[in-house]
Design goal:
By secondary structure, this protein is α/β, with parallel strands linked by helices. It has helices at about 5-10, 25-30, 40-55, 60-65, 85-95, 145-150, 170-185, 205-215, 220-230, 275-285, 290-320, 320-325, and strands spanning about 75-80, 110, 110-115, 115, 130-135, 140, 160. Strand 3 and strand 4 (about 115) form a beta hairpin. The N and C termini lie far apart (about 45 Å). The structure holds zinc ion (ZN). The site of zinc ion has 4 residues, from helix 7.
Length: about 350
């Protein structure tokens, strides 16, 4: 399996540089080591990924697989719950994440009412919660889109904001981290992996590898590639490269061949949802329900065509019916207005 093939599933392995309170350079270096989705999540996705690659590892297929992370049209809203945290902290997170709200899209984040933000059921019982926030794991990470409900159980977090417990007000940096992670939860991947950015050609790879392979990160070459290499696959939802994206990652200037002059270098991460981010979300979840349904149907047909190539061998290989898991979800369309 190629590294780029991995990247589409593992871009959620967030390279956490930002701290809730605004990180110093030393803190940033330290935090790099805490990157990534929990190993058990990665393992599940890996198994699935390997089975898919056996069916078809063409560039076109990769784009189709990747589009399965988009929330289906049955999800006009995504229910968010919290495993921990005071109402003040939950309000702060909800307020920061709500910057993603836009009339140009047909998807919204539903946190419950201010001061009464939802709690996740520790045993995962009750209505499906699409985004399950924890503050107690290491680092900052989120599953990408529907992976939040396919590759993590209801009693497991799908998004983590490590170190936020006890905080009631977020710094701009903290808000930016919230927006970045909820961007992933909405289905958006890293901007520096946007094939239209061409950042692959901008990195000083020797420096990148030697830095990240060393302590405190100790990443393997494969892990680095998963997190940094350009996403592959035709058929992707793409907008032009956006340096203001909250999904763009900030690295030291010497990670780039042209240093601070590189088009992929930014002096600071954006902490705001950019116009480009909004445009991408509108492309993924158009306000017009018919367009969203049509795009989803097309993705389903393409995915099914590949899936069916595998017959029983394919489905047995991953031990779950991926078509059902990604395309037949009940969603939140017919859910009661407020169950809590
Ligand atoms: Zn990220």
């Amino acid at each position: 399996m190629t590294a780029s093939a991995f990247s589409k599933w593992l871009v959620a392995a967030v390279i956490a540089l930002s701290a809730a309170g605004g990180a110093s350079a030393t803190e940033k270096e330290r935090l790099l080591a805490r990157d990534g989705l929990p190993a058990e999540y990665v393992k599940r996705m890996l198994q699935y990924q390997q089975a898919l690659e056996k069916l078809d590892d063409s560039e076109q297929a990769k784009g189709i697989y990747r589009n399965t992370t988009l929330w289906g049209p049955n999800y006009p809203k995504l229910r968010v719950c919290f495993f921990e945290g005071s109402q003040a902290l939950r309000d702060a997170v909800a307020n920061a994440a709500s910057e993603w709200a836009a009339e140009t899209t047909s998807i919204r984040l539903d946190f419950g009412k201010p001061g009464k933000r939802r709690s996740c059921q520790p045993d995962g019982s009750g209505a499906e919660m699409q985004i399950r926030v924890s503050f107690s794991k290491d680092g900052y990470w989120s599953h990408i889109g529907q992976n939040s409900v396919v590759f993590a159980a209801q009693n497991e977090p799908s998004l983590n904001l490590g170190g936020y417990l006890g905080i009631t007000q977020l710094s701009d940096y903290g808000k930016g981290t919230v927006r970045h992670e909820f961007g992933h939860a909405l289905g958006i991947e890293h901007e520096h992996q946007n094939p239209k950015g061409g950042c692959d050609d901008e990195y000083n790879w020797k420096r990148v590898y030697s830095y990240l392979q060393g302590p405190p990160n100790n990443w393997t070459k494969e892990t680095i590639d998963w997190n940094l290499r350009q996403a592959s696959g035709e058929d992707l939802q793409l907008t032009k490269f956006d340096r203001k994206s909250v999904m763009l990652y900030q690295f030291p200037a010497d990670f780039y061949r042209k240093g601070a002059k590189s088009k992929c270098f930014v002096a600071r991460e954006s902490t705001r949802v950019s116009a480009g981010d909004r445009a991408l979300l509108a492309l993924m979840y158009p306000a017009d329900p018919a367009s969203r349904i049509a795009a989803f149907k097309k993705n389903r047909e393409k995915f099914e065509a590949i899936w069916n190539k595998g017959g029983d061998a394919g489905t047995k290989g991953v031990m779950f019916d991926a078509v059902k898991a990604f395309f037949d979800r009940p969603g939140t369309k017919d859910a009661p207005a407020e169950e809590d």
